[in-house]
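Q: what sequence does this backbone want?
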């Protein structure tokens, strides 16, 4: 049945072999309600009181978030069919894998600003809202550009290929967050203190309202997410042109990043080949997106290639760790 909702939320098709869905008006409210409910449970029940998250708790939460993401993939399969579910899983896997680098950057930020582990979850929780909002803007703008100018598929693809090569060549230069331009601007315009006040973003000293270091870290978390989204969103759009699929896959991958952070933050040295794997994934997706102007690779093949690259980089890292430590 024709409705205003289906008119507003339906996405135009593409000639790239990707699925073309008609999204009914209720699909978006249901998706947003599920995301909102999960966040409320997380902040009001699971993490109502600030506490240090240990490995076991982080592993359980990671398993829960991944299960939720996979469950939504089954919902996509039931509601839209295998092609849409495949694109969702492709976007989910790409976003999840590329976000691992973001996790390690968070570790650097928290360590530099000496944020106690018991307060780190609250910062990342508030960061989720900015990340989701930015993904909405990036995804809708990206899809609109691709649907209006098909040649941008090639441009996005070449950009991802360049990003992948750059990631393969990059090295850790000892990033100092406090010396970044963002922090200089922040401290210039936002009255702040270097003292924490529990998990509050603002506190009062001598009658003045001041930002705590947690707000400074939150600002940097949001900025780093924008930087990573510049790569990850075009990569997801390489497998789907549907705003609904792209946002859902991004959202469920992002929701589980906090638990993944507490699981992997102290294990960066054990994944020495992970950055290489992520660079190869970006390069592969870039090539895939570039050639999709003429030929569309089956989503199953794309999923297989990305999964193999990710698994090989992780296994190679774990096998090399004892050798590096001996």
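A:
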């Amino acid at each position: 049945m024709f409705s205003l909702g289906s008119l507003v939320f339906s996405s135009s098709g593409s000639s790239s072999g990707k699925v073309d869905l008609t999204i009914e008006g209720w699909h978006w409210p249901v998706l947003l309600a599920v995301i909102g409910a999960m966040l409320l449970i997380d902040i009001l029940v699971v993490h109502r009181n600030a506490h240090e998250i240990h490995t076991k708790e982080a592993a359980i939460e990671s398993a829960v978030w991944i299960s939720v993401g996979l469950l939504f993939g089954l919902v996509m399969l039931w509601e839209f069919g295998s092609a849409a579910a495949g694109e969702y899983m492709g976007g989910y896997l790409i976003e999840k894998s590329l976000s691992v680098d973001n996790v390690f950057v968070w570790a650097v930020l928290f360590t530099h600003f000496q944020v106690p582990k018991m307060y780190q979850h609250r910062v990342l929780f508030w960061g989720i809202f900015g990340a989701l909002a930015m993904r909405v803007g990036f995804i809708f703008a990206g899809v609109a550009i691709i649907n209006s100018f098909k040649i941008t598929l090639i441009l996005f693809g070449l950009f991802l290929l360049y990003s992948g090569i750059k990631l393969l060549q990059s090295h850790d230069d000892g990033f100092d967050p406090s010396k970044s331009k963002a922090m200089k601007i922040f401290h210039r315009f936002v009255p702040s203190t270097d003292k924490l006040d529990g998990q509050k973003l603002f506190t009062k000293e001598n009658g003045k309202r001041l930002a705590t270091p947690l707000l400074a870290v939150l600002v940097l978390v949001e900025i780093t997410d924008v930087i990573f989204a510049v790569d990850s969103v075009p990569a997801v759009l390489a497998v789907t042109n549907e705003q609904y699929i792209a946002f859902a896959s991004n959202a469920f991958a992002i929701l589980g990043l906090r638990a993944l952070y507490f699981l992997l933050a102290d294990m960066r040295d054990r994944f020495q080949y992970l950055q290489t794997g992520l660079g190869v994934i970006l390069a592969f997706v870039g090539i895939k997106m570039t050639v999709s102007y003429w030929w569309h690779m089956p989503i199953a093949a794309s999923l297989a290639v990305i999964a193999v690259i990710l698994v090989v980089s992780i296994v190679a890292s774990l096998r090399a760790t004892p050798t590096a430590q001996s």
